[in-house]
Amino acid sequence: MTDRIRWGILGTGNIAGQFARDLKVARHAELAAVASRSRENAEAFAGEHGARNAYAGYETLAADPDIDAVYVATPHVCHKRDTLMCLANGKHVLCEKPIAINAAETEEMIQAARSADRFLMEAMWMCFFPSIQKTQELIRNGEIGDVRMLRADFAFQANLEPGGRLLDPALGGGALLDIGIYPIALAQLVFGKTPQTITSLMHAGETGVDLQSGLVMQYDTGACAVLSCSLETSMPHEAIIAGTNGTIRIPSEFYHADTIIVSRNGEDTTLSFDRRGIGYYREAEETGRCIREGKHESQVVPHNLSRAVMHTMDHIRGQWGLRYPGEA
Ligand SMILES: NC(=O)c1ccc[n+]([C@@H]2O[C@H](COP(=O)([O-])OP(=O)(O)OC[C@H]3O[C@@H](n4cnc5c(N)ncnc54)[C@H](OP(=O)(O)O)[C@@H]3O)[C@@H](O)[C@H]2O)c1
Q1: pTM higher than 0.85 for the full model?
Q2: 13 within ligand 1 shell (Cβ under 6 A)
Q3: CATH topology for 5-123?
Q4: C-beta of 7 in contact with ligand 1 (< 6 A)
Q5: Domain boundaries, the chain
Q6: Which pLDDT score, from 0 to 100, does residue 66 have?
Q7: Which one of 70, 173, 219, 253 is at 20 to 30 Å from 88 when CA atoms are compared?
Q8: Ligand 1 contacts CB of residue 180 (under 6 A)
Q9: pLDDT value for 117
Q10: How many CB atoms lie within 10 A of CB 259?
Q11: What pLDDT, on a 0 to 100 scale, did the predictor assign at position 160?
């Protein structure tokens, strides 16, 4: 293997295209191949994004010896199947969020990566933004005192076409797994632990999946996270972290913001950060760095972060009685 990671992409949908665009600005990375369920889509994607090979069928890409890492960009319910197939073929894997539909699947994937001696990371792109990393650093250094409250919302009026991924239970549809995961992951980063108590209310659509929900999570210290997610309406995607000595506001959209506003003693300080592409290049570069260093996981999105977030989402779905087909 050279320093340059030869990437393969599974799936040709929305996020696969955005990732392929960002691979062009990622260091030590090239798009070697794309695979689709249809030859036509694979060839169109390869033509648009400059992939050397276009495969009809994901298995063919997984078996290609000239690929180092695979980016899994299929619907949530396919993540486990696609990741296990790539690992079994000796590939390192960057898998879209949510890494799986529940904690049991997540554990199976992590163990498979360990057994195969391969790198695995959930593509939680938010964690790579300097705005988020600076926020973590300020909290760690006690700059806003003891964090007592987090407020974060992710609500947008989605195109809820019948049969689409977001409404289909068979594809792991619903707001929680698709977008609620961002405020939940932020809460995990801010508090560094899973909540002790969760109270949640959800509104389901005709297909039974959650269209929106409100979540209140309390930690053993009494600190609180008040979160929401909705596919039915739009709100600013802001996050506010409030401590005993100040606040950090991450403006909309908090999961890919380029600024944060730190308020202390009645004074606001705005910190601004640069980016090269959309923001997905960072997870590609981190995957490459970890692979070159022989690491199985990244400290930016460690396996324990994926585990904790999936456990929290399992707990919330348990409260709602929302199970996906085939789940125990
Ligand atoms: N990180 C982010 O910012 C971000 C943003 C959006 C989505 N995501 C995540 O990325 C994943 C894909 O989301 P997306 O918005 O890109 O979805 P999408 O536009 O619907 O694309 C999904 C692709 O998966 C493939 N696929 C395989 N089996 C499928 C099936 N049974 N039904 C439908 N498609 C199937 C299809 O590609 P082929 O037909 O070519 O095989 C399809 O184009 C989700 O897990 C989502 O949560 C992440």
Answers
A1: yes
A2: yes
A3: Rossmann fold (3.40.50)
A4: no
A5: 5-123, 130-274+309-320
A6: 97
A7: 173
A8: no
A9: 98
A10: 14
A11: 87
